[in-house]
Amino acid sequence: MVFLGNVVLSRHAVGRKCFLLAASYFFYAQWDPRFLGLIWISTAVDWFVGKSMSASQDQRKRKWLLWTSLTINLGLLGTFKYLDFFIDSAVALLGTIGFQADVHTLGLILPVGISFYTFQTLSYTIDIYQRRIKAHDSPLDFALFVAFFPQLVAGPIVRARDFLPQLAKLSTPTREDLSLGMYSICSGLFKKVILADLIGATLAQPFYNNPEQYGTVGAIAGIYGFAFQLFGDFAGYSQIAIGCAQLLGFRLPQNFDNPFMARNNLEIWRRWHITLLTWFRDYIYIPLGGSRQGEAKTYRNIMIVNLVSGVWHGAAINYLLWGAVDGITISCSRFYQRIRGRKAKQDLPTDFIGKIWWQRFVTFHVWLLAMPIFRTNSLEHLAEVGRAVVRWDSPIPSHQWLPLLGTMLLVAAFLQTLVSEYQGPRLRARWATFPPELQGGIFLIFLGLLGAFAPSTTPFLYFQF
User: Fold this and answer.
1) What is the pLDDT of residues 131-182, one digit of tens each?
2) Can you give the three-state secondary structure of the chain, one letter per residue?
3) 345 pLDDT exceeds 50?
């Protein structure tokens, strides 16, 4: 319906934008219409802050306006995402020193997408403050930038300087847009429905729900399973969002670039959730000094960014610990690269068999070690997972801890990663040569098959962040 409405209104720019904005608000309201108010607050605040900041030459006023935006946006995010956690932590801390505080949490619901659209609007005001962009003239365009439904609830995180110019020069979808949009949607749905959901249901969830019932092989399969479930779920959503936007004539930034094929732990985070990591780089890492103030401060900045990344994912100790572990592995990777010395790109083998293979193998498994920290919900849960890894015997039959379907899909996920790395551009180019009628037919058949054979609907994992 949105696609058809977008086509019908293709010659009426204002009407098309109003239609897309209404569709975006309707899409978000399907979850809980009460939280539309938070989007409207962020939109209104940052629209007026941006206009006032852009019109002023008084640096003190500009800084005050920036702090207004930061306080309101981060205040809303902090209240809904972290307040209950801080209350619980404070009560527990007081209890350890003998004070029994009768304080109850507020039981606040985390609004879907608040972490994503908050960072989008903040990038707008920060960029205006740093004079990278000027305030946009159209409040309608700005509202659509904040609420654009394909990426509203789980990214990619879009920058105003990339999206607002597309609204200013609104164009209709080209044949290439439609072709690549359908390809991205199919690829994303395959990752989400076939790989992520089924691997999660057969390997990851049974293990993490009851790790005490598993031995070494089942535990390893569950840990591998969650890694590919998480990747398939989030990378799949990102591709679906990019494809939906492209069908409407908009380009969203790439969010994943085969992270499991990275050669070191620095590279894996340049390939995973790219828009979030570049946001942290531009607005936290570089302002802290980046790598310009000596090695000690560089490692400090890496740790700060990764701790912030951990906290961004959730208000729990496991996310903070996960961020710390990732910061350590990235710092070690950087230290190793400096000790070993940088080699020219042409000296690195590009074939799958050779030196690059063991680099990818080690990188993936170092990253994999932190996944149980991310997935478990307490230190006791994490300890039980660790015991399962070293428990050779299993209390349950082998066909339960290593089901045939889950094993086959795990192999398929590995193969999909290899195919995407080495044949992805060729497959996209081949798809583009198909006639539009054939592309549309394949797209509809694929959607029909997914609807008929897919397992029960599973929410996207990153909706909780």
Assistant:
1) 999 888 889 999 999 999 998 887 799 999 999 999 988 888 888 888 899 9
2) CHHHHHHHCCCCHHHHHHHHHHHHHHHHHCCCHHHHHHHHHHHHHHHHHHHHHHHCCCHHHHHHHHHHHHHHHHHHHHHHHHHHHHHHHHHHHHHHCCCCCCCCCCCCCCCCCHHHHHHHHHHHHHHHHCCCCCCCCCHHHHHHHHHCHHHCCCCCCCCHHHHHHHHHCCCCCCHHHHHHHHHHHHHHHHHHHHHHHHHHHHHHHHHHHCHHHCCHHHHHHHHHHHHHHHHHHHHHHHHHHHHHHHHCCCCCCCCCCCHHHCCCHHHHHHHCCHHHHHHHHHHHHCCCCCCCCCHHHHHHHHHHHHHHHHHHHCCCHHHHHHHHHHHHHHHHHHHHHHHHCCCCHHHCCCCCCCHHHHHHHHHHHHHHHCHHHHHCCCHHHHHHHHHHHCCCCCCCCHHHHCCHHHHHHHHHHHHHHHHHHHHHHHHHHHHHCCCHHHHHHHHHHHHHHHHHHCCCCCCCHHHHC
3) no
Question: How many Å apart are CA 395 and CA 456, to the nearest integer?
Answer: 28
What's the full length of the chain, in residues?
Answer: 465
User: What does the DSSP assignment read for 115-157?
Assistant: HHHHHHHHHHHHHHHTTSS---S-HHHHHHHHH-GGGTTT-PP
**CB 59: neighbour CB atoms within 10 A?**
9
Ranking 21-35, 86-100, 447-461 by mean pLDDT, the lowest is 86-100
Annotated catalytic sites, by residue? Answer: 313
Q: pLDDT band at residue 305, thresholds of 50, 70 and 90?
A: very high
Structure tokens at 54: 């852009």
Q: For position 44, what pLDDT does the model report?
A: 93
209-236: per-residue pLDDT in tens?
A: 989 888 888 899 999 999 999 999 999 9
Which structure tokens are listed for 327?
A: 């910061």
Q: Between these two residues, 424 and 300, which has the higher pLDDT value?
A: 300
The reply to whether omega before 435 is within 30° of 0 (cis) is: no
Residue 281 has pLDDT above 50, yes or no: yes
What pLDDT, on a 0 to 100 scale, did the predictor assign at position 102?
60
- Percent of the chain surpassing pLDDT 90: 35
pLDDT average, residue stretch 176-204: 89
- CB half-sphere exposure, 71, CA atoms < 13 A: 7
| 276 within 8 A of 310, measured Cβ to Cβ | no
